[in-house]
Design a protein that fits this description.
single chain, alpha/beta, Nucleotidyltransferase, domain 5, 9 helices, globular
């Protein structure tokens, strides 16, 4: 795949613009290294929702052509909600960005455990791409497929633009799902904590017990809330 000329469009002072250009160039080093090995379709994969007490785990796979940068992109956990939403809109509306989403529901998580559910969501995200990648960069310390060349990248969402993009796509997709569940179960406050075990969430669980979308296999329910 032919390299495109790098371009960053930002209205920033020259010093800050240079710093952002350098940061974005560094964020694409892993992708460049993969292409240098001969891989032509490199994608990043990440997930959102391993830790919550409720709702699905969501994974995303994302392809961004060489030479295209998204200023401000980073690990979704480090972005303010407004910036994350803006980047999500840019990614999903960009004509050259390709992505796939995988969603594994709470019932399956209870059946196969959260690790296996996460790996399944990642596989589904790649399967839902409109093309077959030949290289996958995966956030974390393990890969989910043996049929495609894969690299596990520790803290990859802060080291690769592709993985950072996947983290944003997964996070925003899952947040929207939890907002929809909030409409059905407003007493649990899913619009606020998105299912994570915050103090308010645990207080509500102590009062009402688990909702139909809570993960019954998690320790919090085995020992506490199922008996409320």
């Amino acid at each position: 795949m032919k390299e495109r000329k790098s371009k960053v469009s930002l209205k920033l002072p020259k010093a800050l613009l240079k710093n952002e250009q350098e940061r974005l160039e560094k964020l694409t080093e892993l992708e460049k290294a993969a292409r240098a090995k001969g891989y032509t379709c490199v994608v990043g994969v990440d997930e959102a929702g391993r830790g919550p007490l409720a709702g699905p785990v969501v994974a995303a796979a994302c392809f961004i052509p060489a030479g295209i940068f998204f200023p401000g992109i980073n690990d979704s956990k480090l972005l303010l909600p407004a910036k994350r939403k803006a980047l999500f809109a840019q990614l999903t509306n960009h004509e050259s960005v390709v992505y796939g989403i995988g969603i594994v529901e709470h019932t399956v998580i209870d059946q196969i455990n959260i690790l296996q559910a996460t790996l399944q969501a990642m596989r589904e995200a790649v399967q839902n791409l409109p093309m077959q990648p030949d290289c996958v960069l995966v956030d974390g310390n393990r890969v989910f497929t043996n049929s495609i060349y894969s690299e596990a990248v520790i803290k990859g969402d802060g080291r690769s633009q592709l993985i950072a993009a996947a983290s944003i796509l997964a996070k925003e997709t899952r947040d929207q799902i939890m907002l929809e569940w909030h409409q059905k179960y407003p007493e649990y406050g899913f619009d606020e904590h998105k299912g994570y075990g915050t103090e308010r969430h645990r207080d509500v669980l102590a009062k009402y017990g688990p909702s139909p979308i809570h993960r019954r296999s998690f320790n919090a329910f085995k020992e506490e809330t199922l008996n409320v």
